[in-house]
Amino acid sequence: MTRDWRRWWIAGVAFAPFIVASVYMSAKPVPTKLARTHGGSAADFSTNPYLDAEGGRFRRTAVHMGTDWTVEVVALDEQAGEAALDAAFAEVSAVEARISEWKPDSEVSRINRGAGAAVAVSADTFAMIELALGVAAETGGSFDPTFLPLSLVWRIEAGDARAEVPPDEEIAAARAHVGFRRVTVDKAATSVALGEGMSLGVGGIGKGWAAGRVGSVLEARGITRYLIDAGGDVLAGAGPSSGQSWKVAVAGPGGETIETVELTHAAVATSGDAQRFREIGGVRYSHIIDPRTGRPAAKAASVTVRHKDPAMADAYATAAAVLGPEEALKFADRKEGLELLVVLPDGAVQKSAGFSSP
Fold first, then answer.
1. Is 289 in contact with 147 (CB distance < 8 Å)?
2. What is the 8-class DSSP label of residue 124?
3. What percent of the chain is predicted at pLDDT more than 90?
4. Tens digits of residue pLDDT in 277-327
5. Alpha helices in 176-280 (DSSP H)
6. Which of 2, 42, 223, 226 could pair with 237 as two cysteines, CB 3.0-4.6 Å apart?
């Protein structure tokens, strides 16, 4: 998933749609107030920042993977909360260093530079790529981790964004280097081989994957009550206190809340073009590229996916945004544990039957 800048309201805390400065906030009890920002509605959270015998809630925000990450944990005291948040953000940094295609020393960058030959990677990076290829296969290529050549042609978000639609020949040339079926993986050697001229991009799965790794790190430390917001990819552990769920409100095109989801031990991810788009010749072009056609997706303004696995939610959200509401909802009906909500370009909302269920 790529970040949808329509706002997330999480556990009553509004995460505003701007990048937080690269400053680590010390772990402090969550303040008790109703949070609002830029127009949407907000949910109440605990009237006491300390949750009695269950501990206190501590939150930290920092920038990673080009967006703001916020992690909130319930811990017995400030020392435990501080340590848990240190471990969480250390894991984000470690995953980013391995998988970012924009970091020249990452494992994904090594794979891209070595296209045409097998490149050995860590077990964690291999597992992420294997998962991405699996989603690509089951979605018929509407999600495809080899999309990067097309993204570079369109340059929707680049500082040197082009002012005209790429010519058909340029799109066709890029498409010739896109195709998940031409990626070879060797599980025994944990190696990945791309076809000549191909490149991997993790924009549709990377933050979800990293969020899952952070959740595992917290669980290993005995922190079971947590909420992770990875720039719009949200993973919840157990609720903030016994009998409670984390509440995530999905905003519509005008910033209004169109759905509130109660979340425990599950993830939600949104893919959309609320602010990540470019107008060329009066036509709006999304940053989400359909790998099958080589052109920006245009069937949905945003898609929010609910799934137990954050990396799967991330990838399915991208695939559903490409598929459009009719195909995406049919796909969700066939997939146990997958629920989605689609906002159409005209603002209409369609969703699967179980999307709102706790």
1. yes
2. H
3. 63
4. 566 566 666 778 899 999 888 788 889 999 999 999 999 999 999 999 999
5. 206-220
6. 226
pLDDT confidence of residue 278: 63
**In the numeric block, which tokens belong to residue 239?**
């609720």
User: Angle, to 10 degrees, between the axis of helix 123-138 and the axis of helix 310-323?
Assistant: 30
3-state secondary structure of 196: coil
Helices (H), the chain: 78-99, 107-113, 123-138, 148-154, 168-175, 206-220, 310-323, 325-334
Mean pLDDT (whole number) for 117-145: 98
Q: What is the pLDDT, as a whole number, of residue 21?
A: 24
CB 324 within 8 A of CB 353: no
Look-up of token digits 């960058």: 109
Structural domains of the chain, with CATH: 107-193 (1.10.3980.10)
List, in order, residues 6 or more apart from 354 with CB less than 8 Å away.
Answer: 339
Return the beta strands (E) in 187-293 as ranges. 191-193, 226-230, 233-236, 246-251, 257-263, 266-272, 277-280, 283-286, 289-290
What Rg, from alpha-carbon coordinates, does the chain have? 20
Planar angle of CA 172, 176, 179, nearest 5 degrees = 125
Percent helix, strand and coil across the chain, each to the nearest 5: 30, 25, 45
DSSP 66: T
For residue range 141-160, list pLDDT tens digits in order. Answer: 999 999 999 988 877 555 55
Beta bridge partner(s), residue 341:
304, 351
Q: Give me 6's structure tokens.
A: 């329509």
- CA-based torsion, 146, 148, 154, 156: positive or negative: positive
